[in-house]
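Lab notebook, bench 4. Still working through the backlog of constructs that have no structural model yet. Next entry is a single chain of 196 residues. Request: give me the structure tokens for it.
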Amino acid sequence: MDDIEQAVSAVRDGSLVVYPTETVYGLGTDALDPDAIERVFEAKGRAREKPISLAVPDVDSALSYVRPTKREREFMNEFLPGPVTVLCEKRDVVPDELTAGRSRVGVRIPDHELALQLLRRVAPTPITSTSANVSGRASVMHVDDLDTEIRDAAAVVIDGGETGGTGSTVVNVERGEIIRRGELADDIEAWLAAEE
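Model written out:
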């Protein structure tokens, strides 16, 4: 069984997996399972009031979990897959544990072949999209640099070599606002300004 297959089994069991993206390594599990989501918070030592995004293999898959506006759809079609997280209104199937009770959830479609393989094979289940590091510590670009706590908590680590290193840009398209600057932030700003 290869790493991807092992990771798919782990996600389906509610266990944690470390997977590469084009930005940094991510910590994934079933994004619809409150118990699995709790394991992510525990492994990262993350405050429960900080939401976690979900990752899917394509925009069509995202529609099962979010209700994007026309403008958000246009944005997603323009920038995804890519190093971007888009905040959209969540559907009821997305647990409050993931969004810290908020009405919006971040949607991520990583532009990385191993991440997309994992997402396609585990579909239709989305997985959590959060950096594979203990909160407050640096994000990880090499599996050799994983925090011991993350490595111990993960059932499977998919080694995709070195990743890009800059976190995704988080965007609230509805408000025309960049929440966190990362890759493509200037391009996104220009798109948001042109579309107003």
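Notes after review: Strands lie at 16-19, 26-28, 53-55, 84-89, 104-108, 127-129, 154-157, 169-172, 177-180. The helical segments are 3-12, 34-44, 59-62, 70-79, 96-99, 113-122, 148-153, 185-195. Flag for follow-up if needed.
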